[in-house]
Design a protein that fits this description.
Blueprint lengths: L5 H6 L14 H13 L1 E4 L2 E4 L12 H11 L2 H25 L3 H4 L9 E3 L5 E5 L6 H11 L5 E2 L12 E2 L26 H4 L15 H8 L24 E5 L19 E8 L9 E10 L13 E3 L2 H26 L4 E4 L7 E4 L14 E11 L4 E2 L5 E2 L3 E14 L17 H7 L5 E4 L3 E6 L4 E13 L2 E15 L2 E12 L3 E14 L2 E3 L1 H5 L2 H6 L26 E6 L7 E4 L1 H4 L6 E7 L5 E9 L2 E10 L10 E3 L2 E3 L1 E8 L33 E3 L2
Parallel strand pairs: 22-31
Antiparallel strand pairs: 1-2, 3-4, 5-6, 7-8, 8-9, 9-10, 11-13, 12-26, 13-19, 14-15, 16-17, 16-18, 16-20, 20-21, 22-23, 22-26, 24-25, 24-27, 25-32, 27-28, 29-30
Helix pairs in contact: 2-4, 3-4, 4-9
């Protein structure tokens, strides 16, 4: 890839002919992230299946690593493989960013230690077409690993040739990556390239750039561009006299081991100069030892020659102290920029992500069916912060010219039956809940929605349609994700993934319990009330056909068993979502119920249940739920039916206002258990606003 500049190779991954050759670039990371989130590619705005990989894995690229799992492994492992590719690609891009903190990389100073020409005696010389091996890289690596020495390659082709040079004992001392008391500020730029080098700030203009390459190029010499050698770079100065001299006395010169050099009679002169920091001027260092002048070589070994300019451990330590914290900070900034996109998912105005009539489900296969929730409504907010650069510029991060797609990841309740008899009951443990779930996580994908623009802080209500529906027996944990791909701020092809835990299906029922009458919060049948003087005496007057003690005891039409019209309203005042059981065919008969299933999250959700019968209207019951994400629902037995949530409309025998409340309840084995068709939910007449 000779001729390709590092930023282009790291960001776009293209060679000088424009072909995509670097499979672990930032561009590859974005593609891998989209595939990890959707298991699809995007072509001309359309979602496409992943390409079929070579099962042999021969010549496998980073993106193909994820595709290989398509051959024989689960979707979950495939998604993990793509996520691994995201971070591997970012790791490669960061490696190249770290190279911008190594002077040889930004001053075109070759340092492979290869193609060193043998002399007439066959010995490997110091003349290497590939440049001499990097002392700085090997020295810093030895310090990182705590090793006591390192080897500089000096070879024609193969490593470990006789020309390789082993360093003297090296002092093992820790490196400073982050100064906890005075850390280097994390850079923020409006683009990936600027972390490597400021746009347009190359050559002589590099001096005013804020990229890591600009700082390193203008601030430090390298072995091959040191004083005394040819260098096209104006900074640091080419004039010896522009630098300040600092002499280390012979008796104070320390070798690489950190110990004083015995019997030393030679001075070491360190040449110092300011290293300017354009990004953080307060971090400018006024007096840095950039190079040395002495009779010593780079190992501080006396070669018995005339003094020369050379870089030694004094200079490399000074470099590391400045460059490593910046490499860390710039890396953090680039990672932050890559993941800067933020979206907030919340409930729509209807108060539920989805709702279905549970009476529509019969003979459900809990393992293989995809019948359930085919529509997801949500509110999406762009919460991406503006990019604030060191130069004081602010760049809003509007989402535009892209697509949105939703995914649902879930397990299945393998014990599900349509009558809910297989659900957890009181006394169930967390282990019982775990055993009910399938082992394999599944994922379904919505149809894409075009997004023309969503400014920071703006929200929008969206409806996502799924060809494969979220099964009615989806089991916790259920994860709702929204994926955006398009323009974010000035970045043309950005990917944002936002995920939120939501509930597994919540089952709620409304019951017509007008076969019972509440007297002082205890429920009785009409036969029990007629047969008891005490109970008959408690009954309100308008429930009695006659108040005369001489007349037979009969209930008036006001308090007879009756058909009931029921409505369940969701959301607040601005929602019109309502489910009805009304009219002659659809109203709930005595001892019948309607049941819905819906999806919510940890936000508070309220349902208002209204009922009306011949006897009059019942005060609406308001039921609230919250903190239901990642919740395992425990059901109770009510008249032989498993119930999680519901509202039972019972006549109040003492007052015309409000429904009844039974504290004695309906226990299993009670003769009032629902029988036959009574045990099945009644289909809703209509669902309005969905």
């Amino acid at each position: 890839n000779q001729g390709v500049k590092t930023p282009e190779w790291a960001v776009e991954g293209k060679d000088k002919s424009g072909q995509h050759r670097n499979y672990y670039s930032i561009k590859a990371a974005k593609e891998a992230m989209f595939r990890a989130a959707t298991l699809r590619t995007l072509e001309s705005g359309q979602l496409k299946p992943l390409p079929t990989p070579d099962p042999s894995g021969f010549g496998t690229t980073g993106l193909q690593m994820g595709e290989l799992f398509k051959v024989s492994e689960s979707e979950e492992l495939q998604r993990r493989a793509y996520w691994a590719t995201v971070f591997k690609s970012l790791g490669h891009a960061l490696h190249l960013l770290h190279d911008m903190g190594q002077p040889q990389h930004v001053r075109n100073d070759s340092h492979s230690g290869a193609f060193c020409i043998p002399d007439i005696n066959g010995n490997i010389s110091d003349r290497c077409a590939g440049g001499q091996d990097s002392f700085y890289e090997k020295y810093i690596e030895a310090r990182v690993k705590g090793e006591g020495f390192f080897v500089l390659s000096k070879r024609f082709f193969e490593r470990n040739e006789p020309g390789d040079v082993t360093s003297p004992t090296t002092e093992s001392k820790p490196l400073t990556y982050v100064d906890s008391l005075n850390p280097y500020p994390m850079p923020s730029f409006n683009g990936y390239y600027d972390y490597y080098r400021s746009e347009g700030k190359t050559g002589s203009d590099s001096y005013s750039g804020m990229g890591l390459a600009n700082y390193t190029n203008m601030g430090f010499y390298s072995a091959g561009t040191n004083l005394g050698a040819y260098s096209p770079y104006p900074y640091p100065p080419r004039d010896y006299n522009a630098l300040t001299q600092h002499h280390i006395l012979p008796e104070e010169v320390k070798g690489m081991s950190g110990e004083l050099i015995k019997d030393n009679e030679a001075y070491v002169t360190l040449l110092r100069y300011p290293v300017l920091d354009r990004l953080a001027p307060g971090k400018t260092e006024p007096n840095v030892a950039l190079t040395g002048y002495s009779v010593f070589d780079q190992f501080l070994r006396d070669k018995g020659k005339e003094p020369v300019y050379s870089l030694n451990h004094y200079n490399y330590d000074a470099k590391a102290d400045l460059l490593l914290p910046r490499a860390v900070a710039y890396s953090a900034g680039l990672i932050d920029y890559f993941f800067r996109g933020r979206m907030e998912i919340s409930l729509p105005k209807d108060g539920v992500y989805s709702v279905v009539d549970h009476a529509q489900f019969a003979d459900t296969d809990p393992i293989n069916d995809f019948k359930g929730f085919g529509k997801i409504k949500l509110k999406l907010k762009n919460t991406t912060k503006d990019v604030e650069t060191a130069s004081g510029e602010s760049y809003p991060q509007t989402m535009s010219d892209g697509i949105l797609v939703a995914t649902l990841k879930f397990y299945r309740n393998k014990d599900y039956t349509d009558d809910l008899n297989g659900e957890l009951s009181e006394g169930a443990t967390l282990a019982d809940a775990y055993r009910k779930g399938t082992d394999k996580e599944e994922m379904i994908l919505s149809e894409p929605i075009a997004l023309s623009g969503l400014a920071p802080g703006e929200d929008i209500e969206l409806t996502f349609n799924f060809q494969k529906e979220l099964p009615i027996n989806a089991w916790t944990p259920v994860r709702l994700s929204v994926v955006f791909r398009g323009k974010l701020g000035d970045e043309e092809d950005a990917v944002i993934v936002s995920e939120k835990p939501i509930s597994s299906p919540v089952f709620f029922a409304a019951y017509n319990e007008l076969d019972y009458i509440d007297l002082n919060q205890t429920c009785y049948t009409r036969e029990q009330i007629i047969g008891s003087d005490a109970l008959w005496g408690l009954l309100r007057a308008d429930c009695k056909k006659s108040l005369s003690p001489s007349e037979p005891r009969e209930f008036s039409d006001m308090c007879k068993k009756d058909v009931m019209n029921v409505a369940i309203d969701f959301g607040g005042a601005d929602s019109n979502l309502s489910i009805h059981w009304i009219n002659e065919e659809g109203a709930l008969q005595v001892r019948r119920f309607g049941r819905v299933a819906f999806l919510v999250d940890d936000e508070k959700t309220s349902l208002s249940v209204f009922a009306a019968s011949y006897q009059g209207n019942y005060n609406p019951a308001v039921v609230s739920y919250e903190n239901l994400a990642d919740y395992y629902f425990v059901f109770s037995d009510y008249r032989g039916i498993n119930v999680f949530g519901g509202n039972m409309f019972i006549m109040n025998g003492r007052s015309q206002f409000g429904g009844g409340v039974c504290t004695n309840g309906f226990m299993p084995g009670h003769p009032t258990l629902l029988q036959g068709e009574e045990r099945k939910p009644v289909p809703a007449t209509e669902i309005i606003g969905w």
